[in-house]
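The protein record reproduced below.
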Amino acid sequence: MTKNAILCVDDEPIILKSLVRLFRKENYNIYTAENGNEALSVLEKHPIDLVISDYRMPEMSGVELLKRVKEKYPTTVRIILSGFADFNNVVSAINEGQIYRFCHKPWDNENLRVTVRQSLEYHDLLKENRILVRRIQKQNLELQSDNNYLDKKNKTNRFSMKIYQNVLQKLPIPIIAVETTGKILLANNAAINLFSALHKKVYKTHICDIFNEDTVAYVLSLLKLDDSVDMAAVSIDLEEKQYSVQIEQFELNSAIKGGILVLTPSELKT
C-alpha cells in the first residue's frame, strides 16, 4: 500500500524536528519546509496528501500558504497550527474552505496524531470517491456510446426490414413462412392472392387450409426433422397449374422454428 505523504511547514527548525519525531512511527513519507515558498517548491516536486503549517511565518502566513495550496492542489488536505491569538483569522479561513482542521499550538501529541490520521482517512476516501466517479463517468460514456451504436443499428435494421418486406410483397412468386406446427406466420401478396384462405388474418391460418393432406404431411415431416434440410421440394397442383413447393428450414430462436415455402410455377422453373 502506498504511504501517505505529509509536508510540515514551520519557520522554527525545532518545531519541524518535533513534528518529524511525532509522525516517524506512523508510516508516513514526511517532508519539511521552513517557509511558504519552500513549501510550494516541495509540492511541485512531490505528491503531498496533507500539509501541516504554522500560522505565523515571515513573508507568507500559514493561511496564505494553505490558500495557495487549495488553489493549486485542491485534493491536498490542509491543517494549520496556531495559538489562540490568531483564532478569529483561522476560523475565517476554515469557513472559506481554505483549511480542513485547526490545531492549537502547543499541541497535544496524541490529539495531533489522531487529527492527522482522520484527515488522511478523509483524503483517501475522497480519492476513492473521485476514482469511482471517474469510473462511473467512463462507464456512462461507454454505455451511451453502445446505446448510440445500437440505436443506429436498430434504425438500420428497421430500414432494412422495410426494404425486405417491400421486396417480399412485390415478388410475383408465392412465399409462405410456416412454424413446425403448420401455423402460417407470414405470406406475401402473391401467396395471399393464390390461396383464398389467406385472405383472412394470415397468422390464424394453417397449411391444412391451403394444401391437401399429402402435401401437409410431407411439409410437416420436413419441418420437424432434427437435422437441417438445405432444400427439399414437393410438386402440387393448384388452380390447374403445377407448382414446385421448395422448403427451407429456419430457426429464429428455441421457441420459433419452421420453414420457408417457395411456390414456383412449373413453367417458371429453369
